[in-house]
Amino acid sequence: MELTLLGTGAPNGLPRPGCPCAACAVAVGADARGATAVLIDETLLLDLTPGAAFAAARAGHTLAGVRQVLLSHPHDGPPVEVPAGLPQPGRVPDGRELTLLTGHRVRAVAMDAPGTGYAVTGPDGQRVLYLPPGGSPAGLEEGAVESYDMVLADVVRRPDALARLRAVGAVGPTTDVVAVHIDHDVPPGAEVRRRLAAAGARAVPDGSTLVVGVYEDVPDVPRRTLVLGGARSGKSVEAERRLEAFPEVLYVATGGSRNGDTEWASRVSAHRERRPGSWRTAETCDLVPLLKDDGAPLLIDCLSLWLTDAMDAVGAWDDAEWADGGERELRARVSELTEAVRGARRTVVAVSNEVGSGIVPATASGRRYRDELGRLNAAFAGECEQVVLVVAGQTMVLRG
Fold first, then answer.
1. Rounded CA gap, 253 and 54, in Å?
2. Which of 31, 264, 275, 393 has the highest count of CB atoms within 10 angstroms of its CB?
3. For residues 210 and 203, what is the distance between their CA atoms, to the nearest angstrom?
4. Nearest alpha carbon to residue 239 among 247, 248, 231, 251
5. pLDDT of the residue at 357
C-alpha cells in the first residue's frame, strides 16, 4: 500500500488561525501542517479537509480515483465542501467492515473518545491503523489483534494509545509509527522530533508519500537514559514522558515514604497521580538486582536520593567514619551500581539532580554530598546512550 499524507496537523491546522502562542509563531515552512487527511492507493480517503484536492495536487496526486471517503472524527465549524466527483463522506459503525472493489478492507475500530479508528488491509495483506485526534482504541485484548505494519496516531497527545497497542502486540518492533494530528502542544521542529523518537515514532511533512512495509530509519529508543536537572526543572516530567508510550513500566521510588512528613507525602502523591495507571511502583534503594533482571522498563527517580541512602549506610556524614573506610565503601557501592547499568538489558530511565552549578554548601557534609553526587552522575552518565539536561522545562541533549 501507498499512503500520501495530505496533512499531518490537528483539525485546526498548525499554526492555529489567530493563535499567538510560541509554538504557532514558529510553525512555518516545513513545520506548518494542514489538518490530517490520508490518501491510500489513490482510492480511499480518510478524513476530508478543506483544500484536500489542492493538497493532493501539490503532492503529485489526484482525488479522481477515490471510491470511498471516511471521516474519523466530528468536524467543527462550517461544513467542508465536497469536491466534484468525490463520494459523499461518511463514518462506519464501530466493528463494521467495508470491502472495496479495489480489494481494500476497512474495519471501524471503537475509540475511548468521540471518533472512529480505521484498520485498513490492502490487497497485498499489509495492515494500517489510522486513529482520530485525541483517540485511543477501546476494548483491546492481548493476542486478539495482529501486528500492524504502520500506525498513524496522535502520539503527542495520546502516548497511552501507543502503550495500549504495544501491550496487546498490535504495535511491534517492525511497526512504523507515524505521528499525525500534530498540534501546538510541543514546539515544532527538533523538539517534536526528539519527543517522538523517544516513543519510537516519527513525523513527516505534509505531502509525504509513504510505502507501507518499507524500512524507515527511525531512531531506536535508548536503552539507558540519564535525565539531569535542578529542583523543579521538569526533569521528572521529562523522564516520565519518555516511557508513557510503553506499557508495564516499573517506577522505582528511592525516596521512601518519610512517615510524618506531609510536604513529602504531597510531592509523592503528585508524582503518583501523574503516572499512567498501568505502571507499577517499587519503593526501594536496592537498584542493582532490578538492573540485572530482565523485564519491563525501569524509571528510577532518583539517584540523588539513592546516594543519600548510600551515604547514610556508610557513615559518610561523620569525618572519622568517612576516613576509616566509609569513602572506600561508597566508591564500591557506586561502582557496583554503574556496572549493573552497563550490563542492563531492560530499558532504564534514571533521574538525578544537578547540584554542581549552585552555591557552594556552607558545611563539610554538604560539600561532600555535592561532590559525591557529581561523581555518581558522571559515572552513571558514562554508561548511558543518552544524557539530557532539563532547565526551566526545556530539554538539552548532552549525549545521544
1. 53
2. 31
3. 12
4. 251
5. 81
What distance, in Å, lies between the first and last C-alpha atoms of the chain? 33
Average pLDDT value for residue range 57-69: 94
What is the C-alpha to C-alpha distance for residues 296 and 347, in angstroms, rounded to an integer?
A: 7
Please classify residue 310 by burial: count the beta carbons closer than 10 Å to its beta carbon, then call 0-12 exposed, 13-18 middle and 19+ buried.
Answer: buried
Q: Which residues make Cβ contacts (< 8 Å) with residue 113, sequence separation at least 6? A: 132, 134, 135, 136
Reported residue count of the chain is 400
pLDDT tens, residue by residue, 107-138: 999 999 999 999 999 999 999 999 999 999 99
SS3 191: helix
Bridge-partner residues for 90, per DSSP? 70
In percent, the amount of the chain with pLDDT more than 90 equals: 78
Task: Give the helix, strand, coil percentages of the chain, each rounded to 5.
Answer: 30, 25, 50
Across all residues in the chain, what is the average pLDDT?
91
Q: 255 falls in which pLDDT band (50, 70, 90)?
A: confident
Nearest to 298 by CA among 254, 339, 268: 254
Q: Is the pLDDT of residue 264 over 60?
A: no
Cβ atoms within 10 Å of 136's Cβ, excluding its own: 22
Buried b (16+ CB within 10 A) or exposed e, 177-190: bbbbbbbbebbbbe
Q: How confident is the model at residue 139 (pLDDT cuts 50, 70, 90)?
A: confident
If one counts every other C-beta atom within 10 angstroms of the C-beta of residue 67, the result is 14
Distance CA 227, CA 65 (A): 50
Chain centroid to Cα 340, Å, comes to 26
Beta bridge partners of 46: 38, 70
Identified catalytic residue from 73, 104, 184, 271: 271
Instruction: Indicate if 271 belongs to the active site.
Output: yes
Rounded Cα distance, 292 and 400, in Å: 23
Distances (CA, A) of 55 to 7, 52, 69: 8, 5, 16
Largest CA distance in the chain: 88
Angle at 67 between CA 66 and CA 73, to 5 degrees: 85
